[in-house]
């Protein structure tokens, strides 16, 4: 059971995207997750330039950012896998914009059934595709937000002494 401020944050997140179209919800939720994921990656890295950060979190390449976040230990395998499932759903909406897709489209419904985090809390579990998408995204959002306080920075490597160096 989720209580107090955490419950309020969850309901606020869900309410934020209720008025959006299905396509708007899928695209905008992933924009929010991408921004937060970049913050988590940035938090994990030692001090670096914007160009160095963009090498790990390139614009318009959320899948690459997710993979790199996993490789540097900023997210878990479970988070990586769920983010990749969410990205596939977002891409289905974004790359088929003229088809008027909805969450009840058979392809999207099937993809939403595969969202594992949507079933973590019984009180938020649903078989409604849009609800599954939103709950899964919410749990990723919460996890990323919480990791800002617990993910340790990588250390920079000290200068090495080379074999042939005097």
Structure notes:
With 166 residues, the protein is mostly helical. It has a single domain (21-147), classed as Nucleotidyltransferases  domain 2 (Four Helix Bundle (Hemerythrin (Met), subunit A)), CATH 1.20.120. Helices cover 59% and strands 0% of the residues. Helix 5 packs across helix 7 (129-147). The longest helix has 23 residues, at 22-44. The radius of gyration is 18 Å and the shape is elongated. The mean pLDDT is 88.
**Overall structural domain count:** 1
Number of strands: 0
- Give me the number of helical elements: 7
Order of SSEs, N→C? HHHHHHH
Given helix and strand content, the structural type is mainly alpha
Computed over alpha carbons, the radius of gyration is: 18 Å
Instruction: Tell me, briefly, the overall form.
Output: elongated
* Largest beta-sheet characterization: none
The CATH class assignment is: Mainly Alpha
CA(first)-CA(last) distance: 64 Å
Q: What would CATH call the architecture?
A: Up-down Bundle
What is the fourth-level CATH superfamily?
Answer: Nucleotidyltransferases  domain 2
User: Which runs of at least 5 residues are low in confidence (pLDDT < 50)?
Assistant: none
At the third CATH level, what is the topology name?
Four Helix Bundle (Hemerythrin (Met), subunit A)
- The percentage of residues in β strands lies in under 5%
Give the overall pLDDT as a whole number.
88
The percentage helix is 55-70%
Task: Give a concise summary.
This protein is mostly helical and 166 residues long. It has helices at 4-16, 22-44, 50-56, 62-71, 77-94, 106-113, 129-147. Helix 2 (22-44) runs parallel beside helix 4 (62-71) and helix 6 (106-113) crosses helix 7 (129-147).
